[in-house]
Design goal:
single chain, 148 residues, mainly alpha, Serine Threonine Protein Phosphatase 5, Tetratricopeptide repeat, 0% strand, globular
């Protein structure tokens, strides 16, 4: 892993950013996400994960400005762009779930992703009841949904 990180492997950097966040090393996680997103600024999952880490670290304004700036650079794909709109307060949770349902073949997977993203954000905001609600929905509705 150290060799991959030192060599600038984007997958290793992304993994390290996630691992640092899981272990509550938020400052190092943010630095690692910054490094990763310089290599792959078009990774929507990475952008959303970095947003949540910044919010957890008490930097919601910086998180919002960075995500807004990233969105302005290019046209996001149809999904998970609505998650970004939700994070930035542009759409409601109901609208997010409606967007998740638009592609019938992927609706269930997208709904599950939305629960995960919203649950992570709610945890970062210290809204444990709302986070638990999302986790409960994910467990009840997504346990048999294929990953990917």
């Amino acid at each position: 892993m150290d060799q991959a990180l030192n060599g600038g492997n984007p997958l290793a950097i992304h993994f390290a950013a996630r691992d640092l966040a899981i272990h509550e090393n938020l400052a190092d996680s943010m630095a690692m996400y910054d490094r990763y997103l310089r290599l792959d600024p078009y990774d929507m999952d990475g952008q959303l994960e970095a947003y949540v880490v910044r919010v957890r670290a008490g930097q919601p304004d910086k998180a919002t400005s960075e995500l807004t700036e990233a969105m302005a650079k290019f046209k996001w794909p149809p999904w998970p762009a609505p998650v970004t709109d939700y994070f930035l307060g542009r759409i409601s949770f109901e609208d997010l779930m409606h967007e998740a349902q638009k592609d019938e073949g992927l609706a269930k997977r997208r709904q599950c992703q939305a629960y995960g993203y919203v649950g992570s954000l709610r945890t970062a905001l210290g809204q444990s009841a709302q986070s638990a609600e999302m986790l409960d929905k994910a467990k009840a509705e997504c346990s048999n949904t294929p990953a990917g």
